[in-house]
Each structure stands twice: as structure tokens, then as C-alpha cells.
From TrEMBL:
Pfam families: 2_5_RNA_ligase2 (PF13563)
Protein name: 2'-5' RNA ligase family protein
InterPro entries per UniProt: Cyclic_Pdiesterase
Superkingdom field: Bacteria
GO MF annotation terms: ligase activity
Length: 242
């Protein structure tokens, strides 16, 4: 089944709601993921042009910068107590897996406008199966799709209502843009405020593909402290506050 056939299999899109999903985050302020940071002027222009094709069908505002998710980490915690929390042991395992794989820089191509039931997206493809291998290294948590269901993509926005998929089908086909190729030199650890639907991403750390170096950005300093292995005398169990 193609992406489009899967989308059209349901009569209506799934609506998104702008509210604070407290039952999901339970007061935990930050959610973290691995992704390709694609926040470049030419990619933002593609994302906006695609959103314009769907206009008022999308939830506003959508402030999340262009990115391609590789793996969902969860809510940072020095001592994870729930399946959706992300701690130092898992981060270390992810970095070990990356350094074992030693993925080189690669190209990614942004293409057509397609859709999931809840969100339209731009298709993405990479050379030599790079994205699938990176997903295998960085995913595996309870919120990640299984390998066979992973669809690399660049989200355009979120549907604001239950719209007929046959009508959206026609709009998807009116988007016309030649493929855009980008060189990928690094992977990024990104975070967002869990209480804000479609809120902006913050770049917390980068993994350089050229030499396997992992470095924190100033915005990720609190996360770096949270994800250090516990030392003697340190009280475990703190959650990252941003």
C-alpha cells in the first residue's frame, strides 16, 4: 500500500486540539528527540509553500522548525521511573550504537507533499538507507514506531479538524516543487516544551558524523547535567527543568 492509499483508506483526517495535555506530560516540562535539524531558509520556504496548499485546514500557529525525526527519547530524568522517561543509560547506549555504526555524512532529498491521518508532510529520502540505519540506532523506545512502520518525513503542520481525505487528496497533488537535496553533516538532539502543541524546537546537542564527536549547546546544559551518570552523594530522580 502506498502512502497515499493508506491516507485515503480513512474517510476523515484526525483533528488536533490546542490544549495542555497534562495527562500525557504529567508536569514534566521537556520532551527530547533525535532528528536531522533542517531549519534552513530553503527548507522553511518549502514547508510554508506546502502549508499554504492546505490553508485553514491546519491548526494555527504551528511553530515547529523543519526537522526529520530519527528517534523519540522521552522526558529527561536522571533516574527514569517510567517507560517514557529518558536517562543517562539510554543516551550512552545511543551514542555507543552511533560510534559502532560510524555513519558518514550523507544526502537527503525533500520531495512530494503527502499526508498521515493527523498531519501533512513532505517526503524525505536518503542515500544508501542511511535513515533506516540511524532509526535503528536511536529508536527502540515505547513511543517509536517499529522499523517496518518508520516513515521518514518533514511535518508541514497538524490538521485542525476532521476533513474529508478525498478533498485533501486533490490539494496534495497541486503542490509542485522539484526535489531539494541537502548534505547532512550532523544529527541533533532537540527538545520542546511538552505543554505546547506544535511549539518550537530547541537544539540541545549535536553528534558530528565526520568524527563521532558529541557536544552540548548552551541551551542543553541543564540536560547535560541531568543525563550524567549519578555520582556518590547525588540525589537521583530529578527531572530536567527548562
Amino acid at each position: 500500500m502506498t502512502l497515499r492509499q493508506a491516507f485515503l483508506a480513512a474517510p476523515l483526517t484526525l483533528p488536533n486540539v490546542r490544549r495542555d495535555f497534562v495527562e500525557w506530560h504529567r508536569g514534566r516540562p521537556c520532551f527530547v528527540l533525535w532528528a536531522l535539524d533542517l531549519d534552513l531558509p530553503e527548507v522553511r520556504a518549502r514547508q510554508q509553500a506546502a502549508a499554504d496548499q492546505l490553508g485553514a485546514l491546519l491548526l494555527e500557529p504551528y511553530r515547529r522548525q523543519p526537522h526529520l525525526t530519527l528517534g523519540l527519547c522521552g522526558f529527561p530524568s536522571a533516574a527514569p521511573a517510567a517507560a517514557d522517561e529518558f536517562g543517562p543509560v539510554r543516551l550512552a547506549a545511543q551514542l555507543d550504537a552511533l560510534r559502532t555504526l560510524r555513519p558518514p555524512p550523507f544526502d537527503v532529498e525533500i520531495g512530494a507533499l503527502e499526508s498521515f491521518a493527523s498531519a501533512p508532510f513532505l517526503t524525505t529520502e536518503a542515500t544508501c538507507g542511511s535513515l533506516d540505519r540511524l532509526h535503528a540506532c536511536l529508536a527502540g523506545g515505547p513511543m517509536d514506531p517499529p522499523a517496518h512502520a518508520y516513515v521518514p518525513h518533514l511535518t508541514v503542520g497538524l490538521y485542525a479538524g476532521a476533513w474529508p481525505t478525498v478533498e485533501i487528496d486533490r490539494r496534495l497533488d497541486t503542490y509542485a516543487a522539484s526535489p531539494l537535496r541537502l548534505r547532512i553533516e550532523r544529527l541533533s538532539l532537540l527538545g520542546y516544551a511538552a505543554a505546547e502543541v506544535g511549539g518550537p524546537l530547541t537544539r540541545l546537542a549535536d553528534y558530528e558524523l565526520s568524527d563521532g564527536r558529541f557536544r552540548w549547546h548552551p541551551a542543553g546544559e541543564a540536560l547535560a547535567s541531568c543525563l550524567q551518570p549519578p555520582s556518590p552523594g547525588r540525589e537521583p530522580g530529578s527531572l530536567l527543568k527548562v
